[in-house]
Amino acid sequence: MFRFTINEIRDLIISFIVIALGFTILYSNGDYSHISIIFPVVLIGVGLGFVFHELGHKFLAMHYGYYAEYQLWPTGLLIALVSSFFGFIFAAPGAVVIYSQGMEKKTNGIISIAGPVVNIILGLIFFLILGSLGDFIYTDMGAIVYLICVLGTRINFFLAAFNLLPIPPLDGSKVLSWSVPIWLITFAIAALLVLFFGGIL
Asked: Which of 2, 28, 106, 200 is a good FRET partner for 34, with 20 to 30 A between their CA atoms?
């Protein structure tokens, strides 16, 4: 049964808000007068991307019979905020901690790749919604939905590629340790999505 502790919910909410703020600062391009407008839009894209990424790890770990709980990393939250002022963001607010006496590399790799895969799927969903807006895009609400989808697409593909970097403790290092071919394929897909959609959106 999938359960959440009070501390876990608190950590998810804090991480969710701080990361959304970091991306808001990043996308403000130095003009912070519109943060109150950009923040709610980014909140949706980042919210889905961040929360479902972590839930992907948690649910799959629990599927394999492990107890898993998200815990924030205060230093990571601070780095995310500070880096956003310099035109990039190091998004490592925390991680799902899996309690086990030992885990096979394959199992660890599968659990680790779940988060980036969720981000890729969410990015594609945002893009499909974007392509289906039609004339609705010319309405006030349509313009907001358009912006949400553009940011949701970009942010989710970025989160997938970033987390697949083969640098401990990121997901990519665990996937690489399990299977080099699978890491190469998923990282290549995520990186290409970032490059392609970053250029057309």
From this structure: 200
Rounded to whole angstroms, the Cα distance separating 85 from 103 reads: 38
Residues 8, 54, 69, 104: which is the catalytic one?
A: 54
Segment 8-11 long-range contacts (CB within 8 Å, at least 24 positions apart): 8/69, 8/70, 8/71, 11/70, 11/71, 11/72, 11/94
Answer whether 164's CB lies under 8 Å from 187's CB.
yes
CA distances from 9 to 16, 56, 134, 181 (A): 10, 15, 37, 35
Domain ranges of the chain: 6-200
- CA dist., res. 85 & res. 133, Å (int): 32
pLDDT tens-digit map of 28-65: 888 888 888 889 999 998 888 999 999 999 999 999 99
DSSP string for 175-195? HHHH-HHHHHHHHHHHHHHHH
pLDDT by residue (tens digit) across 2-35? Answer: 688 999 999 999 999 999 999 899 988 888 888 8
Known active-site residue 54? yes
